[in-house]
Design the sequence.
């Protein structure tokens, strides 16, 4: 019950009490009339609107709260331009895994786009980063002139395929005039080739497998030893040689069939020339002496006598008599 209603009832009680006091001048009021007035008073009091007492709780700044929430949901982000950054457009020459003859020179050209905010100038350089350098420069001038942001440029380096067959990959980057190194957003750009040997046109490398024997098998065993797969060199392709061939094929991502065929030969042979020594030289000497009858020592040292024997052999096979045992000379030595 609110305070106003209570006050009205209290006044009503006083009014009743006053009406019951005897006076000499007033006319007595009937009980029915007094009851009727009391009922009307109570009804009127009940029908009056209730006024709540104002709350003392501090008002909330709805506008400020809403603004702060929106600020948290949509933070202001400022993008800072990157001065030096490149993107790859295309391989102009030598796409990935292009076959290049061992020891052959080639020119690799990339097309790059300047996606940074700084202009590339003649003070910028292309530099070798990691992997297989392939006789490329450690660094060289990137361009003559300028490459503004958004423009493309063709960048070239002169390279040479390694002497042994295999897959080779070299990573390259750029460097500005202040020495800051940069490349693509994902890292360096690269050149990847497959160095291959090439025998005479139309020739096919012979195959050797378990059960074979002879100077060619002895050469296989010596070449395996040169690649770190040591075994007894006896000229017999037995279980141990088969296991070593499988290991070599695994190391070079070849089909593990334990057969020394064209692909395995191209990985197995090593170019040798005067001044070299090791099992690979012994393999050449062994073939020249046992298979072709040259009177030389099989000592693993490529000296003048071995060089002369190689040149004579090359002449007899119609090859360039340079004294270097490369892919074509190896093929002639191995060919059945």
Sequence:
């Amino acid at each position: 019950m609110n305070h106003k209603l209570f006050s009205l009832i209290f006044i009503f009680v006083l009014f009743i009490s006053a009406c019951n006091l005897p006076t000499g001048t007033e006319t007595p009021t009937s009980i029915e009339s007094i009851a009727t007035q009391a009922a009307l008073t109570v009804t009127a009091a009940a029908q009056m609107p209730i006024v709540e007492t104002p709350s003392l709780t501090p008002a909330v700044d709805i506008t400020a709260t809403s603004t702060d929430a929106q600020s948290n949901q949509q933070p202001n982000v400022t993008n800072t331009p990157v001065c030096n950054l490149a993107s790859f457009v295309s391989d102009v020459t030598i796409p990935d895994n292009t076959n290049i003859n061992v020891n052959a020179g080639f020119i690799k050209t990339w097309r790059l786009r300047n996606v940074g905010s700084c202009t590339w100038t003649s003070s910028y350089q292309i530099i070798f980063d990691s992997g297989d350098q392939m006789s490329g420069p450690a660094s060289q001038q990137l361009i003559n002139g300028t490459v503004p942001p958004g423009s493309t440029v063709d960048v070239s380096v002169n390279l040479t395929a390694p002497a042994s067959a295999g897959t080779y990959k070299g990573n390259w980057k750029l460097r500005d005039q202040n020495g800051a190194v940069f490349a693509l957003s994902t890292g360096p750009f690269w050149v990847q080739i497959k160095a291959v040997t090439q025998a005479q046109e139309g020739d096919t490398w012979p195959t050797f497998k378990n059960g074979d024997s002879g100077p060619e098998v002895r050469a296989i065993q010596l070449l395996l030893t040169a690649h770190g797969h040591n075994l007894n060199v006896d000229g017999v392709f037995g279980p141990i040689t088969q296991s070593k061939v499988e290991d070599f094929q695994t190391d070079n991502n070849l089909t593990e069939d334990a057969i020394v065929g064209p692909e395995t030969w191209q990985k197995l042979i090593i170019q040798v020339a005067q001044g070299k020594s090791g099992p690979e030289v012994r393999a050449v000497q062994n073939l020249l002496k046992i298979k072709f009858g040259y009177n030389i020592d099989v000592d693993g040292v490529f000296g003048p006598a071995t060089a002369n024997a190689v040149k004579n052999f090359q002449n007899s096979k119609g090859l360039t008599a340079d004294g270097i045992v490369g892919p074509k000379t190896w093929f002639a030595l191995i060919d059945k």
In short: The first helix runs from residue 3 to 20. The two ends are 122 Å apart (CA to CA). The chain has three domains: 1-18+31-45, 86-196, 215-334.
